[in-house]
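haha ok so turns out i had the wrong file open the whole time. this is the CORRECT one, sorry everyone. sequence first:
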Amino acid sequence: MYLDKDLECEIRDIAQNLFSQNNIKIFDFKIFREANNLVLRFLVDKPEGGILIDECSSLNKQLVRLIDESKILEDGFTLEVASPGLDRALKTHDDFLRVINKNIVCFLSLPLEGKTEVRGELINVTDDSIIVMNTKEYEIKLTAIAKAKQIINIGR
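then structure:
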């Protein structure tokens, strides 16, 4: 079965309606075939982070029911609703806002003061840049960040 963009949008809309009612945000959505089976994969989280496995399970069951009721998919499918994980990439302005006052690492596409990697505490987020404090303060344009993620320290 070929999945066109309209159908993909319909599935996303059904999911978005359910998730927004539960204060859940979609971080990623993919549709693909795996061994002749259609897979719908949603990575979701609460805006402030911290979605639980039980919440993902409940959302999965509700979304399967809504997609089945809509009859937009003729064949069977596998639905995955999961957390993007603690070490997910920081890509959007909202991603950075979620980890303000936390330690992050940024890999830069162009050197900043001779550095292509900046680690430190994210202390501010503006419309087009972030401020990271290490031994000094670094203002990094969002467009200069090739990859960024929160540094997770697991204590003993």
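The helical segments are 5-21, 53-70, 93-98.
again sry for the mixup
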